[in-house]
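Researcher: Here's the sequence for the chain we discussed earlier.
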Amino acid sequence: MNRRIFLSAAAGATLSSAADTPVPILDTHIHLFDPRRPQGIPWPPKDNKKLYMPSLPDRYKKLVAPLGVVGAIKVEASPWVDDNQWVLDLIANEPMIVGVIGNIEPGSADFRKNFDRFHKNPLFLGIRYGNLWDRDFHAGIGKAQTITDIKTLAAAGLTMDTANPNPALIDDLIRLTDKVPELRLVIDHLPKLDPPADAAGRKAYEVNLEKFRKRPNVYVKLSAVLRDVKGKVPTDLGFYKATLDQLFDVFGENRVLFGSDFPNSDNVADYKAVLTIVQQYFAGKSQAQREKYFWKNSVTAYHWKKRAANQPSL
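Model: Thanks. This is the structure I predict for it:
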């Protein structure tokens, strides 16, 4: 493949092979919110000047359309139950957004009521549950009711995303998938996890990571790749390649997903830079592997349905 042609995607074309075969991009991780609402928003905080502004579909579309992005999945950015409905209403007539990963907490007294409410909407693709909103994920998945609720989610064909990975969460996800192997699980932003510095902790983390190799329902977002290192953000692929290689090896070509984390990613770099680093990495992969990462695997992970003419389907 011609590397120059491939990297031109970041400047306004869809991903291309040497034969100029287009590869559409499905972004599996964006956040939508509007601080102008009367009730405000729980996140981001007002003092974050880069984020505290409306993040709505029109803004997102204008930004990403020139980059070859044809669709996105909205991931929850609020613990307020009614915000599930707010975002479902927001995207009802916006085909660019193919679905929502919402927020209802397994194990809570009103989980089943809220599940029945939102599951009726085909754009409700699943929930996010992990290191988020001061919830004790470790204790939660040790409770019978939490596991029952997650089994309900899995039986309905919905997906569970995680949040803010660390070695303890990875260990807990092994426990969870032992109990609910049928659950489609997506580990968000795993490239940003810092493995333990001590030898024993590092070994335990890598042993757990290896266990995902044989868990076909567990996917990973190769997202949040760029990171701030002492006030600077390296843009050289070599800085990130070893981590990406390790995760690609464990999860394989069929279980890796693209996600931008927009607009939270603006804390580190702009959207074009976020996309470019993974484009550079996948320039070394086959056309088929690029297609899987940038859109095909998202269909199997989330079971989203095409809403716009320029969106692909399996």
